[in-house]
UniProtKB/TrEMBL annotation:
GO molecular function, one term: glycerate kinase activity
Family as reported in the entry's similarity comment: Belongs to the glycerate kinase type-1 family.
Gene3D superfamilies per the UniProt record, alphabetical: Glycerate kinase, domain 1, Glycerate kinase, domain 2
Domain of life: Bacteria
Pfam families: Gly_kinase
InterPro entries cross-referenced by the UniProt entry: Glyc_kinase_flavodox-like_fold, Glycerate_kinase, Glycerate_kinase_RE-like, Glycerate_kinase_sf
Record organism: Mesobacillus boroniphilus JCM 21738
GO annotation, biological process: organic acid phosphorylation
Protein name: Glycerate kinase
Keyword annotations of the record: Kinase, Transferase
NCBIfam families xref list: glycerate kinase (TIGR00045)
Amino acid sequence: MKIVIAPDSFKESLTALEAATAIENGMKKVLPEATFVKVPMADGGEGTVQSLVDATGGKIITKTVTGPLGTPVQAFFGISGDEKTAVIEMAAASGLHLVPPGDRNPLITTTRGTGELIAAALDYGVEQIIIGIGGSATNDGGAGMARALGILLLDSDGKEIGEGGGALNSLASINLAGIDKRLNSVKIDVACDVDNPLTGMRGASYIFGPQKGAAQEMVELLDNNLHHFADIIRKDLGKDIEHVSGAGAAGGLGGGLMAFLSAELKRGVDIVLEATKLENHLIDADFVITGEGKIDGQTIFGKTPIGVARTSKRHNVPVIAIAGNVASDSEVVHEHGIDAVFSIVPGVITIEDAFENARTYVERIAANIASVVKLSK
């Protein structure tokens, strides 16, 4: 019997690899002769670097870069085991968690550190860079990122504009002459699970600006600045990103990556499925175990268990999911390829208990699932 184990992380308790190992340990108690294939998964958000590094036998690289407020921060990125792919979470360099609540100001926060991580990844000679763009502290349209890669953003006097979303109104021209030439031979995929355009009432500033410290007046200013930014990109680069789905992600970084690096925006879980080559592991599999911290009605919108299930169904492989929290509206996942759902929680327990003993609870439910499988044989 071949069992593929492909969970996401159980946030605040288990990484995807730790969850996969716990599932394997529990099932081995009942099915010791089975073949287990562990494929740690993610959906492009927090934990994606760790999951892809674990899935490919890669490594984590730490790097001191420019943080959102212009001060140094310790960030990281991943390199796959074959050293062909780099994986970056922009939040590691430009994330909201790096800015104390009282200091949050998207007029000045910058994505420069994310660009510095991209440059550092290029030093490894990679052929592909995967960038997850959730959790940003910024609203600069990726201007800081661009500048870190040699792109000049100039005002009407030919001088470089300042950092942050507040400086974009002074942009008069874009000069790509100094861009890092290594980017020409690298494929860049962006994990983006929002469809917000760059500007307007559903754009970066109005939807995400307030959580980054922007009051109403600042939101309007930031939106106007991004509109001006898009105009200059149209004029100098011949690209219209303003109303493209996903361009508003991460304060407009989605749009900036498309405009400056010709990046392609995709659903995060689809990028991870491709990078981990999950489909190859499904050949001759008897069933798949997936899961994450919570399964509910929102799981069907691009979350890991559904991505795994859809891929598995192409090979007619049954799918079982486990979760710490199985919500009352979770039944909808059965319409999208998940055949059964189990909660790892043994009863009424505290959150602290759930986090502290997650490994034990995952092993226990995995053993129970294996027992049911054994009875059916």
